[in-house]
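Continuing the batch. This is chain 6 of the set; chains 1 through 5 are on the previous pages. Same settings as before, nothing changed between runs. Recording input and output for traceability.
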Amino acid sequence: MNAAWFRDRRPSRYDLALGLVTGGVIAFNGITGIGLGGVDLRRFDVVGALLVAAVTAATILRRRYPVPTAVTNLTCMLLWFLLGFYGRVILIVPIIVCVTLTIVLGRWSGILAGLLTIGFGTGTIRLLFSDHRFVDYSVIAVLLALSSPSLSARRSATTSRGAR
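Output for chain 6:
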């Protein structure tokens, strides 16, 4: 990623594209049931559409308002699973949150976002799944959350060295 791209925090066409693609894929997965399954207790409805709209808007505005959009995105992910909507594609959202906070606000913010994501993820998994699936899903959630800040910090450090 270009470090200069993250200096300007106004939403750009790339932010718009990422937000629309993310929201579109989550909605497609929730509506059609094609792709990764999830809790599958509730059909996609107006509430699901509102959650997807909130994720889309927060993803578009993530560089301008990194902390409020991170909270919005993580809350929407938690609600998605608690309300029982189909699909796990929404799990891309915490990765976007962790990478964005790491690049915009620094490595420690990304690590904090990773820890919050682990808390949200494992709490949700514990509420929804049986004991044997809790361990499997929790390991995946922890690894994803921990890898996102470190990968984006390495990438931003490499980019900033190349910009000198």
